[in-house]
Structures are given as C-alpha cells and as structure tokens.
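Hi R.,

Here's the chain you asked about this morning:
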Amino acid sequence: MTLLKDIKIYFQMMFNYKPKTFWNELLTNSFDLKGVGHYRLSNEENLKMYEQKKVILKREMDKTGIKIGPETSMIEIGVGVGYWTEYFRSIGAKKYTGNDIAEISVINLQRQYPDFEFMQGDISELKLPPESFDLGVMIDVTQHITDDDRFRSAMDNLWRSLKKGAHLIITMWDPSKNIYVANKLRLNRIEKPRGLEKYLEVFGSDANVLTNVDFNDKFLLVIRKP
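And here is the predicted structure, written out as tokens:
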C-alpha cells in the first residue's frame, strides 16, 4: 500500500501537480521531515540537514538583530510538519500564526500547539491582515509556487501583512543553485527557481536585504521592510 501511495505521489509530482492535493496527500502519507524535506532521504537524514539549517538561521537572526519574545507577532507560511514552529516556540514565540496549504498540517499542528493560531489555505489566495506582524517567515516554500502570477500574489500578500520596520526571513531557490539534471527536469512541476530580482519586483527597491547566504540547496534572505 505504501509503495502504491509513493508511486501516486511521484506521478503527481512529475505530471499532475496540484499544490493543495499534492501536499495534503504527501503529508498524510509521511507527516515527518521526509515529507517536507528530501523525499529520497530518511527522516533521520533529513533531521541532520534541518539541524544544520537551524544553525545558519540562528546565526543570521543574531547578525541582523532579530529577537523573538512574548510580544513578537509573527507569521510563518508553509509550516509543514512544524519543525520551525517548534524552534520558534523554543526561543520565545508566543504570538505565532502558522499557515499551510495542506489541511492535514493545520489539523495536526493546531492539536500540538493549542496556544498558537493556524490557518489553512493557499497564501496566494488568502488575505492576511495588513501591517500586523513584526516578523514573517517562509522557509523552503516559494520555489513550490510554480505559477508566476500566484507567486507575485503570495509575495505581495505576505509583504503587506508586515508592519513597517518588520523583518522577513525567506528562502529562494536561485537559478544559480539549479545545477542538477534531476532538478531541471522538475521545473514548472513542483519547483521553479527565481532570483532575488523577482522578489524585489514585489517588495520594492527600498526593501533592505540584510543578508543573503547559502542555505543548503537555496539561499536564506533576511529583508527589512522600510
């Protein structure tokens, strides 16, 4: 049964990518880091990779002066299985809103974190409250928005939800990172690379890019809203 589910998910990934259906079925089948990370790696191997990324994230947050306390209002887009949810809670997050396109993700995490708020839906369609958050986070998500119009809508939605002077932590899969044939074959299916200029077209030229560093197979950006 598991093999048949894996084959079905792989078929959807290659030939019939419908984000809401794909991610809900994938995480229903594998609600762990294998489901949100590299599918060919074990959960333990993915955990090691995520722990390495956490070190980078902490370093860049420290460098850019991002501190999370009980009064920090934050939103995370694409919470997945809650790896970063747990990390942010561990460093003091209290006013946390999490979003995911997959219903199973929101159901499971709301049960696990009853004091946090979660919303299910496509970030390119949801209307977030304007100028409401001190911090926005979107890690390993934007490359999965393969439609350019939806990408622009999602970025605009998230950017508008941030207060003036707020920070945005976001990853991008730049074309310069797209060096493997396997990745090239997946383009316009479940992943699409974009450079920094595509983000700044939405955020505006006055968006202050504080950091842009290697983050496994992507880049991690910290951007301050003017």
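One quick note: Residues 48 and 54 are 10 Å apart (CA to CA).

Cheers,
M.
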